[in-house]
Design brief:
The complex is a heterodimer of chains A (605) and B (458).
Chain A: H1 16-31, E1 37-41, H2 43-52, H3 55-60, E2 63-68, E3 80-85, H4 89-94, H5 97-103, E4 109-114, H6 120-128, E5 135-139, E6 145-148, E7 151-153, H7 158-165, H8 172-186, E8 191-195, H9 197-212, E9 224-229, H10 235-238, H11 244-252, E10 258-261, H12 263-266, E11 272-275, H13 281-286, H14 291-310, H15 317-354, H16 357-369, H17 373-385, H18 394-402, H19 406-420, H20 425-434, H21 443-456, H22 462-476, H23 478-484, H24 514-525, H25 529-532, E12 542-546, E13 555-561, H26 566-579, E14 582-587, H27 593-598
Parallel strand pairs in A: 1-2, 1-3, 3-4, 4-5, 7-14, 8-9, 9-13, 13-14
Antiparallel strand pairs in A: 6-7, 8-12, 10-11
Chain B: H1 2-14, H2 22-27, H3 29-43, H4 51-58, H5 63-79, H6 102-105, H7 109-117, H8 127-135, H9 148-160, H10 164-177, H11 180-188, H12 191-203, H13 207-217, H14 220-229, H15 237-247, H16 254-274, H17 282-286, H18 298-308, H19 320-326, H20 331-344, H21 348-355, E1 356-358, E2 364-366, H22 372-381, H23 386-393, H24 399-408, H25 412-422, H26 425-432, H27 440-449
Classes of the chains: A alpha/beta (605), B mainly alpha (458).
């Protein structure tokens, strides 16, 4: 709120065309099944669909009834069924209604629309179930959902797990296609920087698609592009968020740009859903602020509002009339928003004091700095002992990540399993596989493993495995990396959160997100020279590609592969204001610590 | 369809869209039909009903279509470029040629035509071309990759272009056309492909094959974990228990084997405890259970036993002491849980006993493996009365923390006595204003302030 943008900040492009494009394609697909039809929509597609179309749009195109895909028998009397789903084997298996209808001798028409694309594995399911051909399939190339004027979301949370945990590259081409679509509307890009394996693959896929297609010369609206893998920086999403928007996401979970505030916020008996974006004037001013500043701002705002209302005292009829017709509506709107955000802030304050939030933050900061590790362990232990929701145990992962002694590891794991169930053995296996859990090992163990694995490797990607080992080493090198890049500002200086001096303000001045720091450094030095000093800690694929010169270089697209947090978006907005850039974030999903840990869970059928 | 043809042609000709063209299909509609039949006969299967689709499609015309193609065209022209790279999804493409061969899966209309027109050189596609076509969703025939070497070249090519979708498609074909032994052997040296295969088997729930794969690769721990995971599917608790028992001998790491053993013992124990919920026992009537204890974590079970079975002797399976011993629960963990359970019941006497220890002279004193500030915290969350709370707040060593807690929990006497110990007259005077007028606390403060024996430091 206190910041004024630099005058030379460029304007953001208009993304509404993306919505129109997606909507028109969907309508086109629906028209391919003429006549009345029932539409089954996958649960996690409902919100994205809501952002671009509404029921009346669907009704206009002869959609009769709408259902949610719920993995239970279909009750529909329509003779045409259309399924709008993500390309997942499980969902396709569920479409067994066809078999039942077939057996009953009923003739119906079925169509599956996969979005954003179909996978061969899904079609194999149809083939194996003997309904290939009875069901027609289509693709709805709905890649880019603009959530705000500077956020575009692919809404593919599974990208993270599939790519980084399972090692499945099925979304690589999707990423390439998304970038391609963006490029064809807002490009051509002048420079592309990337870091991480997946970034490199997405880049190649995009280039491939550019070659296949044809690009007309046009005025570029976006110049510079960053591609960044989530596993380049796991620390940032594991930290508790303290910037307003991030905090709201941590506590209430923002879903597709929308949040549901319960009765404790609305101080009535009902919940309301609120869109959180730059259209909300009050929210827009506080979203990037450290939470400690928000209260003061809101109360100031409330006082101003009161003054504005008070104006009508002593007005004559004519003035009153103007006031009502011109100002009152705006004031009422502001009043509504203000009371909502005040309610939300209060509710968050209450929750956070209950959970010993201060202590949690202190522990996180100590872990980041590498101080007072014993205290951190006992804090974590106490949380485990008290069975505090395991999703709030991100300091644990953070601790794992920054490296821990085998003795501590075994003891914490045992206590964890006792508190949350032995089936979390599967979670631990996943954390280990992902590289989120780093047991400090003596050097030889790593070498033994490396040579053992080395024998297994002789295919084209052999080199990649070396990458994996380097990144294994890199992870326990977090502290060295953090020193090298000064991610943790010196703690002896007072940090004024009201006048942030760097991006660290998003974590109360305790830590600059690695992802954003890399971007800052590359922009500053016009290349990866920052990397030269740290490559021994951090051996990942990096790339720099220059294409044509363009005027739009100060408009920067940052594509996060595997998700990004609201805190990172706030940090980039800050960087943009400071340096006169405009950042557009293109992410596979919005993530936070809870979502990251949830993606690792396997203790369900 | 014919009616809309002009529109379509117009549109596709005016757009820069290259990959697919509708007019191809329309122009050669009948030819295509013949082609398809030819494809089907190649595959050895022709189905008759396929025309139904087409017949319906021909009648497809009219207002709504016009308006949509108009808007699609509008958007397209505003975007200039190939705005819908994937809209080629061929509405009128006959989809119902039955597919017993994988190739039929991968057909797109263009490929199909080519396949027919150029049936002879279909088999000439290199692995590279094949993979490229698959990436674009075009028709390919994988059947021609028959020798092991060709299959592997194809796989390596797919891995080389980093398209997981295509890698999996090739693997599905290899799975069908290679023996397990050969496939596993080849995957062992291809980590990327292997991970795709494992993920595919996991998603399609082919447990047995996946287990075989792990075994063949010597990945015993993965094998054990996968097998262990199966218990989640078993709903009957007795069957689940028996299954867990069988898991104990799986090739886990020694550490994990211990955890799995505990899992089995715990469920066995829970089944016994669950049977003891007799309606006669008073506590179950007073505090009816909200849920069954089956399949709950160990600490929840301990809490449950501290709640419902606290006084039982160590010999019974449900006594907290027995649970503590069987599962080697850490002292601190035990105390936290017992404290929470007894505090919930407001059994302050039990709380007191929990922390009271007697030394050899018979003096009692309070001892706790967790900090007294934490004890006070837990007690206050359970609405403990001030009399109970102040006992523990008073034991907090750190003076500042003690005062802060005492103020927070309104343990006035602790604040007062701490200020007295600090000989801080000013603070005590200040605190006088915070206690209720005419209260015992106020009297106590006055008494102290007027006590001539205290040497105040201010």
């Amino acid at each position: 709120m206190a910041h004024s943008a630099r005058r030379d900040s460029p304007e953001l492009p208009d993304f509404s065309v993306l919505k129109r494009l997606a909507r028109d394609q969907l309508i086109y697909l629906l028209e391919q099944l003429p006549g009345k039809k029932d539409l089954f929509i996958e649960a996690d597609l409902m919100s994205p669909l809501d952002r671009i179309a509404n029921v009346s749009t669907l009704k206009q195109h002869e959609v009769d009834k709408l259902y949610k895909v719920e993995y239970k028998p279909v009750v529909s009397t329509s003779d045409q069924l259309c399924f709008l789903i993500r390309p997942r084997i499980q969902t396709v298996k569920w479409v067994y209604v066809v078999n039942a209808d077939k057996a009953a001798g009923k003739f119906k028409r079925y169509k599956i629309i996969f979005t954003p694309q179909k996978f061969y594995a899904c079609e194999t399911v149809l083939e194996e179930q003997g309904i290939f051909g009875d069901v027609s399939t289509d693709e709805w190339a709905f890649y880019l959902l603009p959530l705000d004027e500077d956020i575009i979301n692919l809404e593919l949370p599974e990208f993270f797990r599939d790519n980084f945990l399972e090692g499945d590259q099925r979304w690589v081409r999707t990423g390439g296609s998304a970038l391609h679509l963006f490029h064809s509307i807002y490009g051509p890009f002048s420079k592309v920087y990337g870091i991480g394996r997946c970034s490199k693959m997405v880049y190649e896929s995009w280039r491939e698609q550019v070659k296949e297609g044809e690009q007309k010369a046009r005025q570029a609206e976006v110049g510079t592009v960053f591609l960044i893998d989530r596993d380049v920086d796991f620390v940032t999403p594991l930290c508790s968020q303290v910037v307003y928007e991030g905090l709201v996401d941590d506590i209430f979970r923002i879903k597709c740009g929308c949040v549901e505030f319960g009765p404790d916020v609305t101080s009535s008996d009902k919940s309301i859903k609120v869109m959180l974006n730059s259209q909300d004037k009050v929210f827009n001013e506080i979203r990037n602020e450290h939470f400690s500043n928000v209260f003061g701002f809101l109360s100031q705002k409330a006082r101003n509002l009161q003054t504005a209302y008070d104006k009508r005292r002593g007005m004559d009829i004519k003035q009153m009339k103007t006031f009502v017709s011109e100002e009152l509506k705006g004031l009422k709107q502001e009043h509504r928003l203000l009371s909502l955000h005040i309610g939300a802030s209060e509710s968050m304050m209450k929750k956070k004091t209950k959970q010993d939030f201060q202590e949690l933050l202190k522990t996180e900061h100590s872990l980041l700095e590498g101080f007072e590790i014993r205290e951190c362990i006992s804090f974590i232990e106490e949380h485990i002992n008290r069975q505090v929701s395991y999703l709030k145990l991100c300091p644990l992962s953070l601790y794992f990540f920054t490296g821990l002694l085998p003795k501590d590891y075994r003891s914490l794991k045992a206590q964890y399993l006792q508190s949350y169930g032995v089936d979390h053995l599967l979670t631990f296996a996943n954390l280990k596989q992902l590289g989120l859990l780093v047991e400090q090992q003596p050097g030889e163990t790593l070498t033994v493993m490396e040579s053992k694995m080395g024998k297994l490797v002789n295919d084209k990607t052999a080199g990649k495995l070396t990458d994996a080992f380097s990144s294994l080493a890199k992870k326990s090198n977090f502290r060295a990396l953090s020193r090298r890049l000064s991610l943790v500002p010196k703690s002896d200086e007072e940090y004024d959160l009201r006048v942030p001096r760097d991006m660290a303000y998003i974590f109360s001045g305790a830590y600059i997100p690695l992802s954003c720091k890399l971007i800052e450094q590359v922009l500053e030095r016009d290349g990866w020279t920052v990397y030269n000093g740290i490559n021994h800690l951090f051996q990942l694929a990096i790339l720099t590609m220059s294409f044509i010169a363009s005027d739009a270089q100060r408009i920067i697209l940052v594509m996060f592969l595997g998700g990004c947090t609201f805190s990172e978006i706030s940090a980039l907005r800050f960087l943009g204001r400071e340096r006169g850039y405009k950042f557009i974030v293109l992410t596979t999903a919005i993530t936070n610590s809870a979502r990251l840990i949830e993606a690792m869970l396997d203790n369900h059928v | 369809m014919m009616k809309s043809k002009a529109d379509e042609e117009d549109y596709w000709n005016s757009s820069k869209f290259k990959a697919f063209t509708f007019d191809d299909e329309d122009d050669e509609f009948t030819k295509l039909k013949e082609s398809r039949q030819a494809v089907n006969s190649i595959c050895g299967l022709v189905e008759e009903e396929e025309d139904e689709d087409e017949v319906e499609k021909v009648s497809w015309s009219g207002e709504p279509v016009g308006s949509i193609s108009w808007s699609v065209r509008e958007t397209a022209s505003s975007l200039r470029e190939q705005s819908f790279p994937k809209i080629d999804t061929t509405p009128s493409l006959p989809k119902n040629s039955s597919g017993y061969s994988l190739s039929s899966l991968f057909k797109g209309k263009e490929g199909e035509r080519e396949m027919m027109d150029c049936a002879d050189y279909v088999s000439d596609w290199s692995p590279e071309e094949t993979v490229h076509r698959m990436q674009q969703g075009k028709a390919v025939s994988l059947e021609k990759f028959r020798s092991l070497q060709e299959k592997l070249l194809l796989l390596d090519e797919a891995v080389g272009v980093h398209d997981g979708n295509v890698i999996t498609a090739v693997l599905i074909y290899l799975k069908k056309s290679l023996s397990k032994e050969v496939l596993f052997r080849e995957l062992e040296s291809r980590q990327t492909a292997l991970r795709h295969f494992i993920h595919y088997l996991t998603e399609s729930k082919e447990q047995r094959l996946l287990l075989e794969l792990y075994r063949a690769l010597g990945r015993t721990e993965d094998e054990a974990l996968l097998q262990y995971k199966e218990h989640l599917r078993i709903t009957d608790e007795n069957k689940r228990r028996d299954f867990l028992k069988s898991c104990v001998s799986l090739p886990f790491s020694p550490e994990d084997a211990g955890h799995v053993q505990d899992h089995y013992t715990l469920l066995e124990r829970q089944i016994i405890i669950e049977a003891e919920t007799g309606g006669k026992v008073e506590i179950f009537q007073k505090f009816p259970r909200r849920a069954s204890i089956l399949n709950m974590p160990l600490i929840t079970t301990l809490y449950y036993c501290c709640f419902y079975h606290y006084a039982e002797t160590e010999g019974t399976y449900s006594s907290p002491a027995n649970i503590r011993q069987t599962f080697r629960i850490a002292e601190k963990q035990y105390f936290v849980t017992a404290l929470a359970a007894r505090a919930k019941l407001k059994a302050w006497h039990d709380v007191d006993a929990l922390f009271t220890s007697r030394n050899w002279l018979g003096f009692t004193r309070k001892k706790s493996p967790l900090s007294f500030s934490r004890v006070a915290d837990i007690l206050s969350k359970n609405n403990a009365p001030v009399q109970v709370l102040q006992e523990y707040v008073g034991l907090v060593d750190d003076v500042e923390l003690r005062v802060a807690l005492a103020q927070k929990y309104k343990c006035h006497f602790i604040v007062i006595s701490t200020y007295r110990d600090l000989k801080d007259r000013q603070l005590l005077l200040g605190y006088r204003g915070k206690v209720e007028r005419g209260s015992e606390e106020e009297r106590k403060i006055d008494e102290l302030l007027s006590n001539p024996q205290i040497r105040w430091k201010n």
